[in-house]
Amino acid sequence: MTGGQPKINMMEYVFKSLSVLAFDVMRLTVWLVLLVAIFVPLERLFTLRPAQIWRPQTGVDLAWFFLNSLLPAAFIAMPLALLAQVLHGADPGGFYTAVALLPFWVKVVLMLVVNDLGAYWYHRASHAHPVLWRFHAIHHSAEHVDWLVNTRAHPVDIVFTRLAGLIPVYLLGLAQVTGGRLDPGVLLITIFGTIWTFFIHANIRWRLGPLEWMISSPGFHHWHHTNDEHRDHNFAFIFPLIDHIFGTVWLPRQWPTVYGIDGKVPPTLSGQLTEPLTSILPTGHGTSPNPVNTAPNPVGTK
Prior knowledge:
By secondary structure, this protein is mainly α. The chain has one domain (about 55-280). Helix content is about 55%, strand content about 0%.
């Protein structure tokens, strides 16, 4: 009798795990339907470049949508939990107490800025370091940029990008790690950031005029995906001012004419998942080391 108990417990564990997975897949399916309902009509009405709704690699990008919505979160939770243990009870000079007393909306705004600044520096490093570029190149391999391309990214790239943004948020006391619950402010900036990054990848001809100095647009981010001499610019996800400050902005009035990378990545999900681990792509987008260009850049908002 006792010999069968571990087997029963194992079966219960498997059943619970599959139930949780099924719920997550259903939740993500609802999110996907909402995103399709928003961005497919927008890309039909305000098309930047004519394209089919179902293009080559759409199936792979949909697979990335589900994989990257499930897998990276597990790896992000572990270092954040460790950070929570390190910071538990700490309050240097009463700093964390003072931060905790800030109005919630102020903390959320600061979270957005700090998160984008941290992600900027990792994003920039991923274009300059050959090992990091191996993973980031998967995202840049798209030769047609639309809203779904936002999901095409290697999980390793996503994990490090998010940690680069979130760790400073927690170190500054703007968010708290409490058990298995996500800090409300982090939840808000995650939802906003996710929707906004789908927007800036969208195949729509929208420019935001003077607002492009303050918040990213499709025009701003499409130039990040260009594969010509103007590549390796516009690393911020939300606030272009960061690129202005550090000399990495490129925002002319026209749109880029070519996307992608000089190298090739496998066309399958499994190939894209394993290729960065088995071979080295050149840094930047080109075929030779390509340090980030910080020369003076034209800015236009028309």
